[in-house]
# Entry
Amino acid sequence: MILPIDLPEKPVILASASPRRAEILKKIGLNFVVRPSDVNENNAATLPPAGYAVDLAKRKARAVAASVANGLVIGADTIVVLGNEILGKPASETEAGEMLRRLSGKTHRVFTGFALYDRPSNREATGLEMTEVTFRALEEAEIAAYVRSGEAMDKAGAYGIQDASAVFAERINGCFYNVVGFPLTRFYVTLRSFYSIL
# Structure
């Protein structure tokens, strides 16, 4: 089923290289092209988690929008937070294993911030979703096997809830798609409001 989204006559650009975000957006029949942003993701490290995710999403959207004459640019950023510490993408398999050991048996939070930037009006809107994920106690052999698979390496927190690591999650409180990388319902509602779609 394709939901009714009558956007103004302009191209839609996803400022993200994430195949997961692209797959999620396709679920509502949105036609778009992918143009990843090259924004430095470390610049907002002093912000609290929610602000960090939204700030990065805004900067990604604005960076791509700067070279767009007419269009809607979508930026997004997902982070995993354990306590008050942001767990980014692991730089090595060793770091991936360490992250998963730290998440084992604990509840962490997943934040996704997104931004809509319209050209040429320069109107902007943002949104944020937070989901709590509780991992069961993981066995060392499970962690090692998952890390060896390579799935951990391009994901915040060293796991992707849509892949084999789904069996790590004992409980999810909130939006599932947010954990995958894009809070579809909140985005859809924000998009409709942004263009006053009834």
